[in-house]
Amino acid sequence: MSLIHEHAFDYKGFPANKSKTGGWIAAVFILGIELCERLSTMGIAVNLVTYLAGSMHLSSSESANIVTDFMGTSFLLCFLGGFLADSFLGRFRTVAISAIIQTIGTGLLAVSTRLPTLQPPPCDITSSDKCEPANSFQMGILYFSLYLIALGTGGLKSSVSGFGADQFDESDEKEKANLAYFFNRFFFFISTGTLVAVTVLVYVQDEVSRSLAYAICSASMFIANFAFFFGTKQYRYQRSHGSPIAHILQVIVAATNKRRLNLPYNTDLLYEKCFDASRIHHTNQFRFLDKAAITTEDDHVKDGVLNCNNPWKLCSVTRVEELKAMIRLMPIWATTILFWTNYAQMLTFSVEQAGTMRRSIGGFQIPAASLTVFFVLAVLITLAVNDRVVIPLWKKCNGKAGLTNLQRISLGLLLSAIGMAAAALSELKRRSVLTKATSETSVLPVSVFLLVPQFLLVGAGEAFTYTGQLDFFITEAPRGMKGLSTGLFLVTISLGFFVSSFLVTMIQKVTSSFGTGEGWIGNNINKGRLDYFLWTFVCVKLHKFWVVSCFRKKVQGTNA
Fold first, then answer.
1. pLDDT tens per residue, range 464-512
2. CA 478: distance to chain centroid?
3. Do 311 and 335 reside in the same domain of the chain?
4. How many structural domains compose the chain?
5. Cα–Cα distance, 15 to 175 (Å, whole number)
6. What does the longest C-alpha to C-alpha distance in the chain come to?
7. Domain range for residue 100?
């Protein structure tokens, strides 16, 4: 077995020696920086709305929109980060630069929450009930801090998983098996960072000092940067393959210009310039794109003495197949947008359900938002069981390293559909108690732990869907477009946040036009029909489960 990785090189630019580079030693540094990124980003986002409303004196709706826009932009910028990684910087430089930007952003946010001049004066409740909101300069500093963090998060998340995957050689069966473990542990570290953020950091913000909590975020990112650079000699690096977006456009333009030409009977006559391991062989799907590889007399332009091919007129079969591979990703991409839409919706309304239920244990009152701990715990437990039980048993029985990526996505969609069904049933139970309660009752005599099953089921669903999606988009994408494909995957989460707001608005508008006018959601959860809303999304999720299952069977049939 060769110890040289054909497609990777070390920090000196030589072919990577697998005995000295990559593997779990290198992966640990990469997992560490992702842990601190999640700790930092979620430590800020999960409790930011209370700072905006309480200290900056913004309205509830404006505060919520700022948080939603911040999170949505963070994931949208993953697409930009993936483009830069594939086109110019490479994954290592993209992660390093983005992590530094995020460290600066969190540090600036810590300062802005500490200095009184960057906040409006406290409310004078003795003279007026109105509070002076933050001025444009104060909001400008806050926005600058937040979007520095969003820029850093976008660049880091788009490349850190791909860079981690680079540390394992997919052509080596042993390292390929370790790659399946890596994706599980990658998400395990993400969930661990989130768990610490929603517990420890939220407590520090509320009970000690918000600026201290943000300073901890900045310090953790600084330490993660130091550790990441410390591992420079251990990493395996991949060369940039040029702009993937330009390559995609070149194929589309060339195929469009040659749309009237007939394809040759023998596909070996199509143009190909790659004859090494990077070559991708011709497939019969999307054959109209093959016209970009038809050679004509007009496909050459003068460049001094030599003739060179114009990539906007003639593309190689490998380049065409790269675009075909990206197109094949799109059905799963579109399907999983609604997974994150449903995920965002359910977490929002489950917390609202909890706010109306009995949450006391002895003399301690559980905050409604703290029920998300069960969600994170479900993710961690699912990943641990999958890592230590499912993968070894599956490998022992079938000789394969655990469930395939599409199987994990399907299972995640099914679990989340069951979770929303549990949410709908718990809402029916809550409403049955509501009808028996008096109008003056603010807290219903039903335990909040009735909601725990839906958090556990959706959390387990996210564990499978997230790792399956990540694995699918990285392993199925062409070598030169892995950063772009990871960005596409993360954009599904961003679109999930934005689409969720749109769907709530539309469903509420349609359902409020008949009946009592309150609609299924309403301004008051006790006057709406949240159970109808949740059952609708159960049906949508089951449909998406069916779509992915059919796609998986089609892929298996193609590979057979």
1. 888 888 788 877 877 767 767 777 777 887 887 777 777 777 777 777 7
2. 20
3. no
4. 3
5. 17
6. 91
7. 1-123+132-240
